[in-house]
Amino acid sequence: SSSSALNFKAFYVPYPLPPIGRVNSGIETYSAYRINSSLRYQLPIPFKWPSRTVNLKRCLTLNRINIKNTKKQLVIINLHLEAFDKGEGKKKQTEAVKKLIEDEYKKGNYVLVGADFNQSLKTLTQDEINVVPKELWRAENLDKSLLPAGFKLVYDESRNSARLNNKPYVKDSEGTYGFIIDGYIASDNIEVLGVETLNQEYRYSDHNPVKLRYKLK
């Protein structure tokens, strides 16, 4: 099964130079098990007109998979949080996600969020954040106090999951910056067996895949 949801659809994006042009893209979820239903949830948009017409409309998809011999469901959420706001957008989006997963957890469901959080999952000192020049995009720390009770943040601390697109990628070259911004939120009725960022040297994307192994309790 699979599900798809648009988060960036624009007739023409006029910047940077050369311009991006027409965009029609989104987030995808693929499953070896049957997805019984999938819904797109619009997240709060921090941008005003006219810039909002050419910016991503951040969203999530909530996918439900029935668990055999039980009324419970595995709820898999595919999430991509804001990157280029001044912080308030990510906060409002995170609060919306928090309420959603709390509601599903109270129903007795298994809840698993896979996300590009666009924030550092590994807590960094200010000096570590400042390694990236101020004029470039930086991954600020995720506010872990927003994590609901009954949930845990899961990520691989040993390897960066994403890189900055300020220059073509050459491993370990000067001006190459990496971040740990991709991972999972799992409800405590899910047992995490392992998490690993796969070292693909950004062959297919500016992110490397993050593999989670788990089982339902």
The profile of the biggest β sheet is: 6 strands, mixed
Radius of gyration: 18 Å
Report the count of strand segments. Answer: 12
Q: Give the overall silhouette.
A: globular
Runs in which pLDDT lies below 50 for 5 or more consecutive residues are none
Mean of residue pLDDT values: 94
> What order do the helices and strands follow?
EEEEEHEHEEEEEE
Q: Kindly name the structural category.
A: mainly beta
Task: Determine the N-to-C terminus distance.
Answer: 23 Å
**Order of neighbouring strands in the sheet with most strands:** 3-4-5-6-10-7
Number of helices: 2
How much of the sequence is in beta strands? 35-45%
Helix coverage percent: 10-25%
Quick structural summary:
The chain is 11% helix and 37% strand. It has 217 residues and is mostly beta strands. The two termini are 23 Å apart.
Compile the SSE list and pairings.
Blueprint: E1 2-13, E2 21-30, E3 37-42, E4 59-66, E5 73-80, H1 88-106, E6 110-116, H2 126-129, E7 151-154, E8 162-163, E9 178-179, E10 182-187, E11 190-197, E12 210-216
Parallel strand pairs: 5-6
Antiparallel strand pairs: 1-2, 3-4, 4-5, 6-10, 7-10, 8-9, 11-12
